[in-house]
Amino acid sequence: MALGHGGHETENIPEGEPMSVDPIDTTLWIHIFVQMLAFGILFPLGMVLGIIKSRWHVPLQIFATALALIGYVLGHLHRGRQFNPNNVHAKAATPLFFLMVAQIVLGVYLKLHLERGIHGRIRPVFRILHSINGKAFPVYAWVQMIFGGITALGFCQGEHLGQCLAHFIMGGAFIAYGVLLTILLLVGQLWLRRTNRSQEFFDSAVIAAWGCVNTFTEHRWGTAWVRNDWQHTTMGVIWWSAGLVGVWLSKDRDGAPKRNFIPGFIILITGWAMSAHPQELMISAGTHKMFGYTLMAVGLTRIIEISFILRDKPGVSEDGTQTNSFQYIPVFLLYASGFLFMGATEEQMELLAGSGIDHVAYILILYSLASILFLLTMALIHVYDRANPIAKKPTADGRGGEESQLHDANEFELDGLVSDDEDEERAARRKLLRDDGLEEDGPATPSTVGRNSERVA
Fold first, then answer.
1. What is the CA radius of gyration of the chain?
2. What share of the chain is helix, strand, coil (3-state, %, to 5)?
3. b vs e for 102-125, b when ≥16 Cβ sit within 10 Å of the residue's Cβ?
4. Single pTM value for the model
5. Which of 68, 86, 132, 443 is deepest in the core (most CB within 10 A)?
């Protein structure tokens, strides 16, 4: 299948080049848009519908699979621009489709509700595999779409590979950070509270780990040190050293979770360093400078949010359902900074320099892409949130109490971990809640009050 992709008229490809000079034809454009619709929108939406156990999960996944197969065929039938059959997009397509087929097989098996004999032992394993693969599918799809763009333009070849990897991995990491912050901001505050950790603990731990990697990988050891080596390596050092400080500050003197400024500070100083990178082309200098300014704005607004908007509190409201409009600013800017960095590779800058477009128009395009992805992420979270409302249960004085909020938190989290509404799963959930002393016996039963009093005592 990999040999078939782009193997129609490979003699048109110049020697040593990744593709021919022909334009992209209509069939290939249709392939691109069909796959973006299937893998970029429908499969992620189907994943959310599966988490909330919607009846539309199976029909949508069937429709998305049919579209993906059509797009796959179109990718082998196009004319116009031809590609080296060993390109990364073609190599990654086959494993991706095997994973898609495996997901379908697992889903069909679970839908049959086979529970007797050996099925009783293997069914829980298949359920976990189906859940993990389904939740990871948007990540697979994102990587494959990036590979598609790289292949279509013939980028990241030869000596350009290293800086290309750096831009796409780091830019993708900023976007992933933005997605995670969006989830935590809108639906993850109660989960975060149950971990007994502040958000800065996780942020600082990841930053420290990433800094250790950068410290020892940004310079090719055994060769002479150049200016960029010094900048990238010392940036790794500040990441792990300040990251460890953030981990330390994430607990107060009594061991309770504590907010701190360190992740915002690290992002701010990283943006300052990136804005000072020397560039040869004017459009490259303008794009990198805007990337640095955007990243500095992320760090600054994050510090303001924690210190002045939330005043070191986990969130605006105790039940984790309220947000302040200012909290969206650093999250959105993370998406924008990720797209700016991914769109600032050497080959992209050379292509744009010869196209007549200036850095202002290009930056506006990248901000537009960030806005679309931000909107899509919030829409998917909204679908999940509407199916799992965190309702306050009234106490004796008519207000929602802490116990009812913890009960809702348990329900909220456990619902996302199951794929079928089966009796044994519901029983297991009730047992878990009963073990925590959070399950109510009935609307007029005094035993719940007694247990709650014992827990308080």
1. 25
2. 70, 0, 30
3. ebeebbebbeeeeeeeeeeeebee
4. 0.82
5. 68
